[in-house]
Amino acid sequence: MASQEGPSKEQKYDRQLRLWQAHGQRALENANILVVNACATATETLKNLVLPGIGSFTILDDKVADGADVGNNFFLDHTAIGQSRGKYATELLRELNPDVDGFHVDESPSRVIASEPSFFDKFTLVIATQLSEADVKALAAICWERGIPFLHVRSYGFVGYLRLAVKEHAIVETHPESILDLRLDCPFKELTEYADSFNLSTLENTDFAHVPYVVILLQALQAWRASNGKLPSTTPERNAFKAMVKSMERPGVEDENFQEAMKSVFRACSATVIPGNVASILNEAKAMTITPETSSFWILACATAEFAESEKSLPLAGVVPDMKSDTESFVKLQTIYRDRSHQDAARVHAIAASLAAASGATAPSMDETARFCKNARLLKVIRTSSIESELSEPCPKASEIGQMAQDLDSCIPFYLLLRGVDAFYAEHMRYPGYHLEEVETDIGLLKKSCAGVLTRMGLAVSTLTDDLIHETVRAGASELHTMASFMGGVCSQEVIKLITSQYVPLNNTFLYNGIKSVGGSFDL
Amino acid sequence: MQVDGVVNDWPNRWRHPDVYMDRGGPFAPESFIGGDELKEFIHSEDCKILVVGAGGLGCELLKNLALMGFKSIDVIDMDTIDVSNLNRQFLFRYKDVGKSKAEVAAEFIMKRVPGCVVTPYFGKIQDKDEEYYSQFAIIICGLDSVEARRWMNATVLSMYDEDDPSTLKPIVDGGTEGFKGQSRVIIPKSTACYECSLDMQTKPVTFPICTIANTPRMPEHCIQYASILLWPKEYPTTKIDGDDPDHINWLFNEASKRAEEYGIRGVTRTLTMGVVKNIIPAIASTNAIVAAATANEAFKLATSCAATVNNYMMYVGDEGLYTYTFPLEKKADCPVCGTESVKLAIPATWKLHELMESLLERQGTQMKKPSLACGDRSLYMQGPPPLEAATRPNLEKLVSELVKEGDTVVVTDSGLPISLKLVIHFE
Ligand SMILES: [Zn+2]
Description:
Number of strands of chain A: 10
Helix content of chain B: 25-40%
Strand order of the largest sheet of chain B: 5-4-3-6-7-8-9-10
Keywords (chain A): Ubl conjugation pathway
CATH architecture of the largest domain in chain A: 3-Layer(aba) Sandwich
GO molecular function (chain A): NEDD8 activating enzyme activity
CATH topology of the largest domain in chain A: Rossmann fold
Low-confidence stretches of chain B: 1-5
Bound molecules: zinc ion
Shape of chain B: globular
Strand content of chain A: 5-15%
CATH class of the largest domain in chain B: Alpha Beta
Number of helices of chain B: 14
Largest interface: A-B, 87 and 82 residues
Distance between the termini of chain A: 40 Å
Number of helices of chain A: 23
Mean pLDDT of chain A: 96
Strand content of chain B: 15-25%
Radius of gyration of chain A: 28 Å
Oligomer: heterodimer
Structural class of chain A: alpha/beta
InterPro entries (chain A): APP-BP1, ThiF/MoeB/HesA, ThiF_NAD_FAD-bd, Ubiquitin-activating_enz
Strand order of the largest sheet of chain A: 3-2-1-4-5-6-9-10
CATH superfamily of the largest domain in chain A: NAD(P)-binding Rossmann-like Domain
Number of domains of chain B: 3
Largest sheet of chain B: 8 strands, mixed
Number of strands of chain B: 15
CATH class of the largest domain in chain A: Alpha Beta
Structural class of chain B: alpha/beta
Domain THIF-type NAD/FAD binding fold (chain A): 13-512
Shape of chain A: elongated
Largest sheet of chain A: 8 strands, mixed
Mean pLDDT of chain B: 92
Helix content of chain A: 40-55%
Number of domains of chain A: 4
Radius of gyration of chain B: 25 Å
Order of helices and strands of chain B: EEHHEHEHEHEHEEHHHHHEEEHEEHHEE
Family (chain A): Belongs to the ubiquitin-activating E1 family. ULA1 subfamily.
């Protein structure tokens, strides 16, 4: 649905486009997400996705809203009491942004999960809240099988929980603070020629003070190599090299460029290598058979692997950080790096195009290739564990969990408590301490449930203290709006990272203790 | 359900927060007294909350407070709604552009959350006095300006009289930048205050004037050439308005010309706007996270149902998901909450202008145009003009001619929320 009269997207989305740019926004606008159950945590998540302009959302929920539902949910009003929770929430969420489509499916999530798995096929990503452990497990398995990223989010009293299960998520743009790829240790021909064109001894003082540090280091390394044969690698060698750079300074002349050179000595002396995790991505790509379904990430990885094999290096990033220099030298340096990176990218693009053509896949665009090459040193592939493996008995991570639970500030006990709560619910069909008068008896019952969970996982029953169990019963399945909004914020941020394939998502569980305001991420 | 034609509480409306107000627990502080009295207090005017700022954090804070059961809230904001707010400030629609943020936000909350009274003020925090600020139980800041935060912090701390507990006003403060943010609690005299941690603030990037004027390399240098050097020459009487498209167009054109002349790439209209307005990226999710953590602290402070954060929580979401919570230490020589005077050792050879320059570079104070006095003597005054002229010759005098070892120099500056007292020592 397009807005008729309204602001341009460039204006409206300016503050976020500065983070994920137009291609990130396009990915967001093409996404179609599903949210199971429209509790406050779910609508708070959706709010933060509707505002930045996600393509469309669907709410799967058959609950009739009650007074407590409306009390903590900004996207229900009192007229919704006794009516369909999902329908009202969909309307009030759609009202936030005319660019976004919203739909409500008035069906029981449990029934759809059990009998209609193809319902989930069309979604880019699935978010679940307020489901039983059995339903979470079944839904996660449906998504896992289809390669759909799945997020399970909950706010329980002062405890927040978020779990991401994704078979594979590849990231090109991780957005580090800066990209440094200067190849000082292995300069290409044009770069060496340029460095050689400076005759430092004949320069006027002003020009001398404006020689880019890259040129200073390239000349120094060349001289070092002439007498030592290899890069300075040991500490004494590096110190000697530093002294050599220092000796090139001209007394009485402003030395900002030399200071910059001194700061970069360590980096200049380190050999440019293909980082280990990138090398394994390239190896994986090489072993892959490209099919029409292969994503452009893997086609480009395959092309880059071929490039790296012949060049013994990754394509050049082509980025030069600002440095003390006169305009002309800096622009020239930038041009040298940029031209070389364009050549590299063009070669990778050509390889990718022929790989794609040979297998009937779509060839990556030049823009995509350029971004891939610029970020080649930073590629990341995330594969989380599945929820099925996490819930298997005994727990595969039991000993790590037991270790972490020793730390008094760790959030891991809250994970165990939530599993205890789910076991309690499965047995009693209600949440511990939901009613005030049940608190005393439920402490004992929850303790039993927790003991069962811990034993089945392979952990000591003493891992959870009585105080923690009592506090969990106190929570009485309350969904505090502040906690719902916090977890909605956290969950929506992960969704944005997943859909735009930019920045690095969580792997794989985040827990938050709203009493101490302490959070932690765990690989479970 | 209908009271005077207004829909008020319905059965179970407050079930979620009530759970924590009805029940004690092992993690509730000893001071916690649960029950109906506490619940009535939260809903009452005795528990009035001030929200400073009705922007990205402010909108979220108002919603969070209203849904946690606070029914008496004031909100202050001097800004009007801009199109670029709509990607996160969810109480505003396109039709509201140009209207007061505080007023539109208050109206929206009162409509959606019946029974909650939000009183807006469309103006500056400095318009209000101590009597106004003393009516609140908690003050929550959702601001994007360092200056406003410093003013609010200094004002609230100066109101605290240790003999009168009712003058103690906790501040809960939140801030965001892109995928990162922080939330903290300030208890006057017992935790670090905002001023204590001023050196943690990231300062806006500035480039040396000589780079801008003589050796531009980056597109930002060309934009600053247009805004800092060309604009004042071309329009000496007009200040740049980053929201005026004509101003941005002019700067963009001039910066583009300069970039072309030097062969520099990358000057765009978006970058021009970003540099001129010092735009910090802002997204709905980070705002939600920080505002929720902040309102959560307010709820715990107001009810004592659980301990509050000790005392600073950082959130980083761009690489994985990371929080770091730690106690920020008070500074003994903090000009706002400290008890020790600030000692400053300077070379005996310094002239007054050198002392002035060192003050401008001083970390953690961010001064702009300091005026200096010693006792009742003015050493250098930035204004009014006759006083400036009379004190100007002092700039060339040795500091040691003007003050004695151990004398206290009082520095006032528009960038300082209160005056800074420096005890001078000569090296
Ligand atoms: Zn302080």
